[in-house]
Amino acid sequence: MILSAGASIITVHGRRREQKGHNTGLADWSYIRYLRENLPADTVIFANGNILNHGDIEKCLEATGADGVMSAEGNLCDPTIFSGPPPSSSVGGSGMRGEERDGAEYWVGRDRKGGYRVDFVLRRYMDIIYKYVLEVPPPERKPLYVSSPTATFSANNANSDPATCDSIHTSPPVEDAEKKNENGEGDEPPKKKRKRNKEDAKPTSPNLVSIQGHLFQLLRPLISKHTHIRDVLSKCRAGRMSEFENIVSLVEAAVQSGIQEHDAFPERFETPLEERATKSEIEDEKTDAQPPSSKATVAQYKRPWWVCQPYVRPLPEEALQIGAMQPKKRDILVRKNEELGKVVERNGDGDVDAIAGTPDGLASGSDKENCTLVPSAVSG
């Protein structure tokens, strides 16, 4: 129907319509492969689903035979998902020293796992807004922090309470200035309405309205640790670029502190043994040899909080176990009927029992409350 209407390019998501939120689960690429093999060869197909990082793109193309890959949520969490690692000369991290610029974009740890730094990606995002949306030059910024052999991490910072360290940045300059104006403590007289500037105007570009939501996705791992940045970001208003520039400064300071701590105490950032997934566990997850679990996926894609990384949702089975998702009434009813059928078969002396008033022996609707078991006729 879609092709007969004139479409020449289609994007196929390997999930059903109800698979969203906690019920997202895994996409089934076999459906995309089926369409590729049965639709006309000149139909361009983009595959979607289960794209968590750059390495998944080739896997998807090989499994589906699609012409390209589309990413939605994965691209929000990691905007570099379609970019491979930069040349080795521009990669930096623990044990990887080089030129002054090395490591400012891409970070690699001792386990050889890496990714693009969130402060670098955030700068690129803001520069694009300035250049192509506001059509003004981006502000001048100092170079991003890069590890060096002489860099040290203060013992006071290492031993202090993280909450105490975070509180240093909880009152950003922009927010303080606004509070003073509102309370009459600034240059303006008390109770005088603050003059509106250009930033106060309601933004008309959807690119400005969506900045806050995009940053919540990009900075999810970082703001989970540095909650003061999350609180400041939640108060940013669309179109007020000075407030988002304040977020840029806070993120850069947090990333610098994190990298310095990692260089001084790398063991603090190593995954505990009980949370690590072996290669066999990852293979078992792929072949359904073990009950569904997101443990291996999290272990495979997890990076330090200053590195862009995907958000791995718990599988529906796990969401049900922790109470994040409630089973549907229909599923509860089917499960009860299955259990009831087993009991009837076990206690029926070989007879096949059925629930009166219901088709196929399944209770549904009001029948599940008032139903009677009627033994079938036994042949003489």
Distance between the termini: 57 Å
Structural class of the secondary structure composition? mainly alpha
Helices and strands, in order, run as EHEHEHEEEHHHHHHHHHHHHHEE
Computed over alpha carbons, the radius of gyration is 28 Å
Count of spatially separate domains: 3
> Could you say which overall geometry the principal axes of the C-alpha atoms support?
globular
User: What share of the residues does DSSP label as strand, in percent?
Assistant: 5-15%
Tell me what you see in this structure.
With 380 residues, this protein is mainly alpha-helical. It folds into three domains: 1-71; 72-326, no CATH class; 334-375, no CATH class. It has helices at 29-38, 55-64, 73-77, 118-134, 155-159, 162-166, 173-182, 206-209, 211-218, 220-225, 227-234, 241-264, 279-287, 295-301, 316-322, 329-347; strands at residues 9-13, 44-48, 68-69, 91-93, 106-108, 114-116, 353-355, 373-375. A three-stranded parallel sheet has the order 1-2-3, with helices on one face. Strands 4-5-6 form a three-stranded mixed sheet. The chain has a two-stranded antiparallel ribbon with strand order 7-8. Strand 2, helix 2 and strand 3 form a beta-alpha-beta unit. The model is unreliable at 94-101, 155-182 and 352-380 (pLDDT under 50).
Topology at a glance:
Elements lengths: L8 E5 L15 H10 L5 E5 L6 H10 L3 E2 L3 H5 L13 E3 L12 E3 L5 E3 L1 H17 L20 H5 L2 H5 L6 H10 L23 H4 L1 H8 L1 H6 L1 H8 L6 H24 L14 H9 L7 H7 L14 H7 L6 H19 L5 E3 L17 E3 L5
Helix pairs in contact: 4-12
